[in-house]
Design goal:
The protein has two domains: 138 residues, translation initiation factor eif-2b, domain 1 (Four Helix Bundle (Hemerythrin (Met), subunit A), Up-down Bundle), CATH 1.20.120; 197 residues, Rossmann fold (3-Layer(aba) Sandwich), CATH 3.40.50.10470. The chain is 39% helix and 17% strand. It has eleven helices and 16 strands. The mean pLDDT is 97. The structure holds 5-S-methyl-1-O-phosphono-5-thio-D-ribulose.
Amino acid sequence: MSADKLPKAVKYENGELIFLDQTKLPLELVYEKQETLEQVYISIKQLKVRGAPAIGIAGAFGLLISMKNYLEKSVDEFFKTLKSNGEYLISSRPTAVNLSWAIKRVIKKAENSLNHTVEDIFKIIEQEAIDIYNEDKNICHNIGNYGEKLIFDGMGILTHCNAGALAVSELGTALAPIYKALDNGKKFRVYADETRPLLQGARLTSYELYSAGVDVTLICDNMAAYAMSKGLINMVIVGCDRVAANGDTANKIGTMNVAILAKHFNIPFYVACPSSTFDNMTLTGKDIVIEERDKKEVTHFSSCQTAPDDVKVLNPAFDVTPNELITGFITEYGIIKPPFVINLEKTLHKR
Ligand code: MRU
């Protein structure tokens, strides 16, 4: 299975930015050209492009294309607009650190290049966005190679949400070890939580794994305990959106439930992520801002209303898994084990 055969969330070709509209999957494969700052903002906000590394990449390229109309301006005006457009894009989704990380990296590159012409600064930040994309590809392959060693014949692996090719440049984070193990001829099963309310597990994970030829079984979120109690699950691997300095980890709502169950059934619980997801400015999970989304995502199942009109709704997009429930982080530098405060910090110095 070649990584090229997997769906691509973000493409940048001949100066054009294209997102695969993930809200239409798995029924339709629709690619949408992104032409304005506002369009990119909406695409990120509406989860047309989603997944922590993918929104970082989308944000970096989105910021770039938003500057196309400013090539005639002064360096000063160009840079001011770049910064305000960047801040605007960062505000589209607050939890995944990768979005602000990638956008700040592009802005920093421009700041260090202010002695160039606007046209040259544009080319320099274009290259920075391309570098972010290409580095993410290498990182995902490294995560895959390290994580693959944890997979053995006969295993059952549970994953939550989508941390596959659709959530990154290519291959995935949580799904990268699975694709590598498939390539290496290992025989195993994957269980995908459907992941209410927006069904990333059903619509995206089961779609991409099934299409790639992985033995995947879709379960409702409330079936994980049953599957574990029946001995079907030997390991959990999930992705993540932000890891605090102490290892507390934000990921899709419901991840903490799975981690608690894994602890109960004595099943290893791994988080796969690039080291850019480590945020040592955020000390513990309590400091992570959790995105609250529209109540309609809960009162409706796709376009079908399933709850009374005015019922009160809680709709956090993410939860925070306490570090003590995490067996290890699968990163591009290898697998990081506790004590996380020390070992995450050490990893940050390798970047
Ligand atoms: O709301 P989403 O679909 O962007 O949430 C995605 C997740 O929670 C993923 O697990 C996480 O971003 C890691 S993607 C490699």
